[in-house]
Amino acid sequence: MSLVYISYDNDVAFKKAVKEALGITVYAKNDGTILEVATTISANVYWFF
């Protein structure tokens, strides 16, 4: 499953998609980092567009 070029309406939808793509174990071990990077990406996207 690719997460590229997909826009999520909220963090719950994003988390669900990432869990499906990575698997629950990998997601659980890295959830803090994943959400931190996602927040940074989101902020940068809105800043420049």
Short overview:
With 49 residues, this protein is mainly α. It contains 2 helices and no strands. The protein has one domain (11-48).
Shape: globular
Tally of contiguous helical segments? 2
Report the portion of residues in β strands: under 5%
Look at the helices and sheets and give the structural class: mainly alpha
The overall number of domains is 1
Q: Identify the quaternary structure here.
A: single chain
Q: Which runs of at least 5 residues are low in confidence (pLDDT < 50)?
A: none
The residue-averaged pLDDT reads: 78
Query: Compute the gyration radius: what is it?
Result: 11 Å
Helix and strand sequence: HH
Q: What is the rounded distance between the termini?
A: 26 Å
Percentage of residues assigned to helices: over 70%
Folded structure, characterized:
The protein is mainly α. It has one domain (11-48). 76% of the residues lie in helices and 0% in strands. α1 (11-22) packs across α2. The longest helix has 25 residues, at 24-48.
Note the main attributes of this structure:
2 helices, 49 residues, single chain, globular, mainly alpha
